[in-house]
Amino acid sequence: MRKTAYKKELTIRTTQKRKGAANIKKDVIKIQSWLVLFSIWNPNSGTAIKIDGDFGPATERAIRNFQKIKKLPEDGIVDKTVFDALSFNLKEAFEKPLQSTNVRDLIVEVAQNHLDNHPFELTINTQSNSGPWVRSYMDGKDGAIWFWCMGFVQMILDQAVSVLGKKFETLMPLTYSCDTVGTIGLQKGLLTRYQKIRKDPSIVKKGDFFLIQKSTFDWTHTGIVTAVDQGVIETIEGNTNFQGSRNGIAVMKRTRNLMKSKIDVFSIEPLV
């Protein structure tokens, strides 16, 4: 795999605890981030805390609450075992063995596996588009300026095709820009415009990815196509929300109408 920044999110340098002499602020922020992420999908867990890098009594209590849920010793200390439990979903998303044997099915399987593990962005130090999931998709970068929908798509492609010894760079360079990818798609004859798709939706296939067109050479959002049926696509998208925003908060599964939205589609056929 080309995109391996996620591995840094699965480790801390040393055991962290309240008033610990070996505490490292960046590691405490990681721990607090995972506690908050756990609380999003487990709102009764008591693990929602402030992300400030200070391992104080609130962080200790949140760790104890997490340990109780996970049936771990309730000592409020984060060693490798506890941190592995905190970051389990990310490891599962990136390293779970895949079952599919062809590129299109692999892309959909990988995207679904990420979705099942609840990727979600955080706001840290007033910066949205932050946290371990965003950094994993964006090669270590996060913060308000780093819209991460294309980073998500390229991560899914990279993870899927690497299983077969292929490289996603066959289609495009590493980039976070929908405009760059759209332009390359036109140059290579791989991007089909929405006008043609509306006449023949069968052009679109699962495993392809879409680009929402704002104007002729300006695209604002992207995601993976997981199914196509009667002019409707089902998708898995990063950096979106329930309204389909280009700067949302999570990975979500959506349904989009090819007949009403300006949806161009990039074919992954050269990788098949």
From TrEMBL:
This is Peptidoglycan binding-like domain-containing protein. It comes from Aquimarina addita. Residues 26-86 form the Peptidoglycan binding-like domain. InterPro entries: Peptidoglycan-bd-like (IPR002477), PGBD-like_sf (IPR036365), PGBDSf (IPR036366).
